[in-house]
Design goal:
The chain is of the alpha+beta class. Among the domains are: about 110 residues, Ku70, Chain: A, Domain 2 (Beta Barrel), CATH 2.40.290; about 80 residues, no CATH class. It contains six helices and eleven strands. The strands form three sheets. The protein has a seven-stranded mixed barrel with strand order 1-2-8-11-10-9-7. A two-stranded antiparallel ribbon has the order 3-4. A two-stranded antiparallel ribbon has the order 5-6. Strand 9 and strand 10 form a beta hairpin. Helix 3 runs parallel beside helix 6. It is extended.
């Protein structure tokens, strides 16, 4: 059973649905040790008292808010909870919006929501209501020491809580130089659009997230093992001279239709070879 981050309830009008919040992330990390390049010895970091210079153990460290220069208010986890008990125990639904209207860059961190004891029926009611209406519930929730805006979205048999970035946390996009829809230099012809749509159809498959792997981690491990085998473990690689001096040249004229046609042909051929392999495998197993 995964460890829960938070227990409370969803406030849905006059309905309260007891729920448990779980992290939905399992990030792949590549552990690296910081080294002193002069002797390749590990670099350490100490927590120390800036007044005395002495090291401080974790159990002696507390959090403080500096209200005046050098003057602090000490805050504990219990203080964060007591600041607003209801806010720290409730996912408060503010309103409902069309799920498709939430911009992709607004989504921040996903969490799983599961019903707690006696919350199953209310959970299912909210999940199916969101599914039938195509809406997302916009809510506020306090996780650890910060209040978030969040979207509750049905997915399969569960409700996902995805924290959202506030509008002032997003950089404006007005400064970007984007091609205008009717600009002559970037106008797309009906033939090009039809060919691109055909390519999309050829490359379309059911969503199977387990097919996609973090291959970069494996590539790095191969590089590391190659260095170990060659005895070149402490070599500091510098960029190739050709790469360092490489400068972007003028834009090339691209025959978009020719590239699309070749892509469609290649995609169709690849799909046929996959289907042939699958049929051959089934025959062998039979």
């Amino acid at each position: 059973m995964p460890r829960s981050l938070w227990k409370g309830s969803i406030s849905f009008g006059l309905v309260n649905i007891p729920v448990v919040l779980y992290s939905a992330e399992n990030r792949n990390s590549f552990d690296l040790t910081l080294l002193d390049r002069r002797d390749m010895k590990p670099v350490g970091f100490k927590r120390y008292n800036k007044e005395s210079g002495k090291e401080v153990a974790w159990d002696q460290i507390v959090k403080g808010y500096e209200y005046n220069k050098g003057r602090f208010v000490v805050l504990t986890d219990e203080d964060f909870r007591r600041a607003n008990v209801e806010a720290t125990q409730t996912i408060d639904i503010v309103n409902f919006v069309r799920a498709e209207d939430i911009a992709p860059m607004s989504f921040e961190t996903p969490y799983y929501l599961a019903p707690d004891k006696r919350g199953e029926k209310g959970y299912v009611l909210l999940r199916e209501t969101l599914r039938k209406t195509g809406k997302a519930a916009v809510a506020t929730v306090v996780i650890r020491t910060r209040q978030y805006m969040a979207a509750l979205i049905p997915w399969s048999e569960m409700i996902i809580l995805n924290t959202l970035r506030y509008a002032n946390e997003l950089r404006p996009s007005k400064e970007l130089e984007l091609p205008a829809k009717k600009a002559k230099s970037t106008r797309v012809t009906p033939r090009e659009l039809d060919m691109a749509m055909k390519l999309v159809e050829e490359m379309s498959e059911p969503w199977k997230p387990e097919r996609y792997k973090d291959t970069y981690h494996d590539d790095l491990m191969r590089l590391i093992q190659k260095r170990v085998k060659a005895g070149k473990t402490e070599v500091i690689t510098t960029p190739d001279k050709a790469e360092a001096e490489d400068k972007p040249g003028g834009a090339k004229v691209v025959d978009l239709m020719a590239l699309l046609k070749r892509s469609v042909q290649r995609s169709g051929g690849s799909k046929q070879s996959v289907h042939v392999k699958e049929r051959t495998t089934r025959r062998k197993s039979a």
